[in-house]
Amino acid sequence: MLSVIIPTDGVEQPAVATLAALVPGAAAGLVREVVLVDRAGTGVIERVADVAGCRFLPFEGTRAAALAAGARQARSPWLMFLHAGAVLDSGWIEETTQFIQGVANSDRPRAGIFRYARSPYADTGLRDGLKFVARMLTGPSAEQGLLIARDHYDRLGGYRPDARRSEARLLRQLGRRSRTMLRSRIVVA
After folding, report:
1. Looking at residue 108, what DSSP letter applies?
2. Which residues lie closer than 8 Å to 21 by C-beta, 6 or more apart?
């Protein structure tokens, strides 16, 4: 039902944290596959993918090109894009299932974005305050994840490997009317 695409930079800990949050979704039958797209080429993420039962895709290029390559390799009708280190809260499975069913039963394509949550263990500073203000003014950021039907993703042109700020461009292209802010939170490391 759902393919999860996670671009990585060869660092194990953030990837493992994100994968751990996806395990209940796989057990519930929601997550069909996870594609780890590694841009570092160190072999670390390949071992993580092997142990976790994920698909591994080595890749050289920008993050947007890695996301696009992962989407092309994914086999499910729904795509979820997460940054390594992003951890979904426990209610994401039920809400994601309801969202997918709701979109399938309507004639209007929509994409879901998870609600941003700051880690309770993170030190806050001026930069965090500025990011908060930016999210309020410009809308969600790519680090909040994206849940989208493959056909809707393809109609929008997906992540363009050659475009600058391709992730932000896709979110802008969705617009406010075709995206839903989900109640489930995503903690971004």
Report:
1. S
2. 87, 88, 92
